[in-house]
Amino acid sequence: MYKHCNNFKLMVKSKPVDNLTNVPPLGIDADSLKNCFRYYYNHTLGRSKNCKAIHYPYKALSFTLKDRLMERWKKTHSAYEETDCKRTYYLSLEFLMGRALSNCMLNLDLKEAVQESFYQLGLDLEEIAESEQDAGLGNGGLGRLAACFLDSCATLQLPVKGYGLRYEYGMFKQHIKQGHQVEETDHWLLNGNPWELERPEYTQHIKFGGYTEYHTNNKGKMTVYWNGTRDVLAIPYDIPIPGFKNGTVNTLRLWKAAATDEFDLDEFNSGSYTEAVEEKNSAEHITMVLYPNDSSENGKELRLRQQYFLASASLQDVIREWLLHHNDFSNFAQKNCFQLNDTHPTISIAEFMRLLIDEYEHTWDEAWAITSKCMAYTNHTLLPEALEKWSVPLFKCLLPRLLEIIYEINSRFLKQVAMHWPGDSVRIQQMSIIEEGPVPQVRMAYLAIVGSFSVNGVAALHTELLEKGLFNNFYQLWPKKFNNKTNGVTPRRWLAGCNPELRQLITQHIGEKWIKDLSQLNKLKKYLNKKDFREQWKKIKQSNKSRLAHLVKTECGVDFNTDAIFDVQVKRIHEYKRQLLNILHVIHLYNRIKAGDTKNWANRCVLIGGKAAPGYAMAKLTIKLISNVAEIINNDPQADGLLKVAFFPNYNVSAMEIICPGTDLSEQISTAGKEASGTGNMKFMMNGALTIGTLDGANIEIREEVGNENFFLFGLTAEEVQSSHHQYNPVEIINKDKDISAVVKMLESGYFNQCEPQLFDPILHSIKNPYDMWMTLADFRSYIDAQEQVSLAYQDSKRWTTMSIMNTLSSSKFSTDRTMEEYNRDIWKLDKVSAHPIE
Ligand code: 26Q
Question: Please, which pLDDT band fits residue 10 given cuts at 50, 70 and 90?
Fold first, then answer.
């Protein structure tokens, strides 16, 4: 047995003493917090007044707050246990949590008391909160959505637990050097993570490699043994997820990979010490780094290891807890649900079958009846190249038993297809979980659909396109499995937390209930035309713009004037999101300045930010183009005061908390039919920004909610994009439109790359290519015109303020509280459980 498991065996043997855990509640007044803080600073951390490192007061405060969380965490856990309630497990390779400290103070309602105690201690709370590193365990939308979901579930008192990986290195840090993206590793755990609680007593064993053997067991039953494996340990670390002022604290459980001691011993005894250490390294590699969302990284073995590691550890953990209170699996499916965040954890379907059949002696049919009743799959993409596939040979080598199970699932499924469409062999080939070819592939999305009782998209248009296109065969077979769940964002972090002045204004007028029930924002409607309210609204926007301008100055060295339109596009850099269209428009504005054509001009500050996947050359070149254009325009005295451009480096969750409150215009300009939903669009709307956007993803629903008159629409519809691809003629568009041809000429002349000839040729080729997937020029004219409308609207300050207020007022649909209520109503069917109050 393993060393550290043995220690826990001893612990369990000794009788637990009743009053061991019976401790009085901790004070939450300023004095108690201050004393606790001082205790940690002096006794636990051993620092003196001479210590200048901000890290220690941060750590002492985090410990102080975690203690308060801990009490509520335990109460929540025991309430769930006592009620034997149904649970949901949110399985995700990504949780983009951002900072925890401010969020904890907000949700536990401790901000004022902490502020008071820090005032007494002469410490600057804001500075300390800002010193916290972001937990960047995600790429973008999908990972941040998981974090918002956890916040809403805790706030709604839904028994939902997150399962993910504790990556040693999160999303890379982005630097901009001479306009180029340079990646730096994000060793976020270097100084420890004060919020986590290690739980080695719940360590699990994960198998890799080996081979399968079939034997008849002593009951005469054929049994499969997966032998010769190289095992890896999964050690859980728990992160508390507080609900908003409700005593609930849910759990995010993250797994860290570690080598087994057995391994070292075997190799060591055979005299190969260094090989033993190497094995240890290879085990620990599994949770070393978050994969950037990069199509060049597709099919990598380590990624499949990560996926299986998460799936197996989490399922074994759920089963372990289940068997503490139940003798068998008879009502497991009634009491448990797994929500798969995209196909990334989909191997869970095969793994759960394996555990039930091989480890718990179920028949195939019994195991399938359970598995297919508790798995639910969310799709987040329409791009065919983003659909996950794994080569069969790789699968066979790494997870031989799982491949056998997938083949069996497929063979039974294809019989169903044959029954439904007799004689239709094309359909069988199209729908098979195994794609035939020189190297056969496992199609993970198909496995997810076959093994789940629910399949959902993340915005109305997205779900419709899945049903009509990508998954149409499956939709025909099982129409009732498919459903839509439009995304949201948590109003705690994305309004109350990041926009304290607006929070106060809203609360002054309608009370505080809106923070938990965003539909109450409607009540602000009666103040829409009240002078006082409008003046304050404007003042707050100006103040948030100043805060953003200050950040832009420190991060980019560019001066933003707060009287100008703050025009912002921040998100991952990808061709379909069309940052290129944005910068082409900037060049158009610059051309107008140069031509002296500034009638109806509204001054603009254009901010673009986001990370490019390290292997995505076009995305990286787009960053370089934005930087070069910015450099030229910002240094041209003719443009001074009229136009400023900046590329924001290292865009992340914490940056967005400053950016979205200070934005006037939100750029949501993807090629229609490509952006599944978008969630940045919702954060901007909530904070009173207006959207310029295409009819894509959740933009459609945003426009529906806010009204056409409060949204700047442009571009082709998804249907038009589909049907006009074959007749797309960008060169003709250039020739027929003098503004567009001026922009293209400007690029061709090398104006923005005078020392680097040909640098932007790939960009020029892509926009002039009739096969350009993203049809950038098809929408350029209509984008320029919509931007004209923006400028006109901005000059009418009264109108703009009305539109801004209307955006915030109409944003209630985009709270993840609504999203989670819908998941629960249609998929999970959990009862809400209130935590026991702290006595
Ligand atoms: C795949 C293979 C190998 C390594 C990494 C990946 C990978 C990682 C992350 C693939 C995709 C992602 C993330 C996708 C994502 O963020 N999608 C976005 O999800 C949001 C939440 O639903 C939507 O709002 C966005 O529209 C969608 O693009």
Answer: very low
Mean pLDDT of 435-456: 98
pTM here? 0.97
Residue 391: phi, psi to the nearest 5? -70, 135
| Burial state string for 669-678 with b = 16 or more CB within 10 A and e = fewer than 16 | bbbbbbbbbb
Name beta bridge partners: 606. 567, 645
Contacts made by residues 592-599, CB under 8 angstroms, sequence distance 24+: 593/638, 593/639, 593/642, 593/643, 594/638, 598/642
Asked whether the beta carbons of 780 and 581 are under 8 A apart, the reply is yes
Q: Report the C-alpha gap between 504 and 506 in whole angstroms.
A: 5
Which tens digits make up the pLDDT trace of 740-797?
A: 999 999 999 999 999 999 999 999 999 999 999 999 999 999 999 999 999 999 999 9
In the prediction, which pLDDT does 732 show? 98
- Count of Cβ atoms closer than 10 Å to residue 2 Cβ: 15
Check if the beta carbon of residue 671 is closer than 8 Å to that of residue 196.
no
Contacts of 816 (CB under 8 A, 6+ apart): 145, 148, 149, 151, 152, 487, 488, 489, 490
For residue 58, how far is the Cα from the chain centroid?
A: 26
Helices of type H across 708-796? 718-724, 730-736, 738-748, 761-768, 780-795
Backbone torsions φ then ψ of 482, nearest 5 degrees: -85, 135
SS3 569: strand
Block residue for tokens 């038993």: 401
Q: What is the pLDDT of residue 295?
A: 75
Are the C-beta atoms of 543 and 654 separated by less than 8 Å? no
Show the ligand 1 pocket: residues with CB < 6 angstroms: 139-142, 145, 291, 293, 297-298, 303, 380-381, 386, 458, 487, 675-679, 697
Confidence of residue 61 (pLDDT cuts 50, 70, 90): very high
Give Cα separations from 764 to 451, 746, 752 (angstroms).
Answer: 45, 11, 13
Residue 296 confidence class, pLDDT cut points 50, 70, 90: confident
Q: Tell me, what's the pLDDT at 263?
A: 57
Contact 499, 489 (CB under 8 A): no
Cα 388 to middle of ligand 1, angstroms: 11
DSSP 3-state assignment of 158?
Answer: coil
Closest atom of ligand 1 relative to the 140 alpha carbon: 16
Task: Detail the DSSP E strand segments found in 537-590.
Answer: 565-570
Torsion of CA 137, 141, 146, 147, to 10 degrees: 70
Catalytic residue among 34, 572, 703, 813: 572
